[in-house]
Amino acid sequence: MTQPDPIKSQLRIPASLHQRLVEATAETGRSMNAEIVHRLEGSFDEAMDSDALLKSNLVIFQLAAELTRYNPNALDIVSGMITRLFDDAAVKARVHALADGGDEIASMARDMAVKRLPGILAEVVEKMNSIDDDEPAKP
Q1: How far apart are CA 92 and CA 89, in angstroms?
Q2: CA-to-CA distance for 47 and 43, rounded, in angstroms?
Q3: CA-CA distance, 38 to 72, in Å (whole number)?
Q4: What is the pLDDT of residues 38-89, one digit of tens each?
């Protein structure tokens, strides 16, 4: 299989970025073109890695939320995960974009956060209240 002919393109970049690329080419031994192509291709790989890490965190969030039913100490984990996943606007937007795009993990995590977690927390509160009710009255 042959490589398609490369497309020639002019690129306007700030002088400071150009200088950083010059320094990088000196370190790596790549040509300016090869360095730019290498870094652009790497940025796409990093985006895929970032989504994989996000999905891993979404799975952990779902597991911790379910675990909270049986161990209220997991609330700390759930609280931290909610902060990391849904308080940051960019991360929250990415979760919603993945879910809206049909990603099953993101969709399930969003469903957990919005629909199921309030019920789980209500169960935990009910269990904790029943513990208080079971305590014998102090004289």
Answers
A1: 5
A2: 6
A3: 48
A4: 888 877 766 677 888 888 888 888 888 888 888 888 888 888 888 888 888 8
Rounded distance, CA 116 to CA 69, Å? 11
Residue 125's CB is within 10 A of a number of other CB atoms, namely 11
Whether 65 contacts 117, CB under 8 Å: yes
Q: Which helix (H) or strand (E) holds 27?
A: helix 15-28
Alpha-carbon torsion (90, 96, 97, 99), positive or negative: positive
Q: What is the largest CA-CA distance in the chain?
A: 89
pTM: 0.54
Are 106 and 51 within 8 A, CB to CB?
no
Count of other CB atoms within 10 angstroms of residue 49 = 10
SS3 for 6? coil
Of 76, 58, 65, 67, whose CA–CA distance to 118 is shortest?
65
Structure tokens at 29: 């031994």
For every residue of 78-96, which 3-state class applies, written as one string?
A: HHHHHHHHHHCHHHHHHHH
